[in-house]
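Work Package 4 report. The design task specified in the project plan requires that, given a folded chain encoded as structure tokens, an amino acid be chosen for each position. We show below one input record used in the internal validation round.
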């Protein structure tokens, strides 16, 4: 894959893919191949969307998605290596919509999260504080859909306030899928705007719009992470437009949808420094932090009656869940307690942020580094968590991270046993298949960059 493109010295790296002018015939042939890839992906998504019970066909689902991932990587290669025209862009955008339409009719087969959204939405519409109740309580048990019994029945909500509000907007499972798929398509639109802003080919939106993990997470399973991604991308646009206070508002909204954007706060605040005037720079940072805190507080204000229970669900989740993890699992298996392992990976996550700050890595690249690193360090790395970093691959299409976004589908393997009533448990062999090629590729890249003069890890 070509080297990163935004905000870097790239004349040498670009000569392979962008500096050379491909023949017109090459572009036509590439578009024809792209059409064939789109047709194959449409066939796969149509097949998945018409499968009545994917929970009993998880191996077939994984196989089809790995095949879709291979096709996706071919599409990414074509976008990187050829100067495609408007017709190709129309193909990319129209196909992205078709893929999602193929998956929407299917009931969410691989995750029960959307049924919890439905229950949370009913709690919200009943004007009950969702941080004070849980499904097993007699007073709210009637709000549950008896056809889909909820897991974690004694745990209150772990979702932030903006997500809670979004859950109250619709009432049906199909409605949640349509809502979060619409937000997902909205993210693709914002990526087009971002690509235009940084003067990169619009065709690179394919990296997000055709990504199989993105398609499965939102159009098939209806996960709400698309809300956080959309608001985070809006913040990135505002950062580039130098409207940093407004960017802080949207970063806070993203945090109120999903907690992970909090780790990007120091990176956004760094951009508020004013060269040559330390006092003004400090005041600017404090103002940005104050705006973020004020918006976050306003979001939580209606729920403050829950008191110490406000983050009870989140703490229960943090204590109880370990799934599809990689680095955390290695630290834990090295003889550490869970608390010690959490401390180690927490320090490593902070070190990633500190590295991005020290090297003054520009926001889009820093966002890729931090969000991807955060998932790799997390005790819970469900497949849809990998969608957090996929938007930033449009600007830095790093081969190991692209591969990671494809192999992440192996994280659905425990559903086989879980659907049969057994514990949700990861297979070390499957985890090795999922992560080992990625870490090996990253390690080789790090060694090569360490030998290159002036190179840095974040490149």
């Amino acid at each position: 894959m070509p080297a990163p493109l935004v905000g870097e010295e790239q004349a040498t790296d670009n000569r392979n893919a962008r500096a050379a002018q491909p023949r017109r015939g090459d572009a036509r042939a590439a578009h024809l191949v792209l059409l064939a890839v789109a047709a194959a992906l449409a066939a796969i998504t149509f097949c998945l969307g018409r499968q009545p019970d994917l929970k009993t066909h998880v191996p077939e689902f994984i196989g089809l998605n790995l095949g879709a991932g291979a096709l996706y990587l071919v599409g990414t290669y074509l976008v990187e290596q050829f100067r495609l025209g408007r017709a190709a862009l129309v193909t990319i955008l129209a196909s992205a919509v078709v893929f999602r339409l193929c998956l929407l009719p299917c009931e969410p087969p691989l995750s029960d999260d959307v049924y919890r959204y439905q229950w949370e939405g009913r709690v919200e519409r009943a004007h009950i504080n969702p941080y004070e109740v849980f499904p097993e309580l007699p007073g709210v048990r009637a709000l549950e859909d008896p056809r889909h019994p909820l897991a974690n029945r004694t745990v209150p909500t772990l979702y932030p306030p903006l997500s809670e509000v979004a859950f109250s907007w619709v009432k049906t499972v199909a409605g949640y899928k349509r809502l979060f798929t619409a937000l997902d398509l909205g993210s693709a639109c914002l990526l087009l705007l971002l690509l235009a802003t940084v003067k990169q080919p619009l065709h690179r939106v394919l990296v997000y719009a055709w990504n199989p993990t993105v398609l499965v997470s939102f159009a098939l399973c209806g996960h709400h992470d698309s809300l956080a991604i959309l608001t985070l991308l809006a913040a990135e646009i505002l950062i580039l437009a130098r409207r940093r206070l407004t960017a802080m508002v949207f970063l806070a909204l993203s945090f109120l949808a999903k907690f992970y954007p909090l780790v990007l706060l120091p990176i956004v605040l760094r951009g508020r420094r004013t060269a040559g005037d330390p006092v003004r720079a400090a005041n600017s940072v404090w103002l940005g932090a104050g705006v973020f805190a004020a918006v976050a507080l306003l979001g939580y204000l209606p729920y403050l009656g829950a008191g110490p229970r406000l983050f009870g669900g989140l703490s229960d989740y943090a204590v109880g869940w370990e799934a599809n993890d990689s680095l955390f699992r290695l630290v834990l298996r090295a003889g550490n307690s869970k608390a010690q392992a959490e401390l180690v990976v927490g320090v490593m996550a902070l070190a990633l942020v500190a590295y991005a700050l020290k090297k003054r890595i520009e926001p889009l690249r820093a966002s890729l580094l931090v969000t991807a690193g955060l998932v790799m360090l997390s005790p819970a790395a469900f497949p849809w968590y990998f969608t957090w970093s996929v938007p930033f691959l449009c600007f830095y299409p790093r081969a190991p991270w692209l591969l990671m976004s494809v192999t992440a589908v192996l994280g659905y393997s425990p559903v086989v046993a879980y659907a049969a009533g057994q514990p949700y448990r990861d297979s070390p062999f499957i985890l090795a298949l999922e992560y080992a090629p990625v870490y090996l590729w990253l390690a080789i890249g790090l060694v090569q960059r360490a030998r290159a003069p002036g190179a840095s890890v974040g490149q």
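DSSP finds 21 helices and no strands in the chain. Validation will be extended to a larger panel in the next phase.
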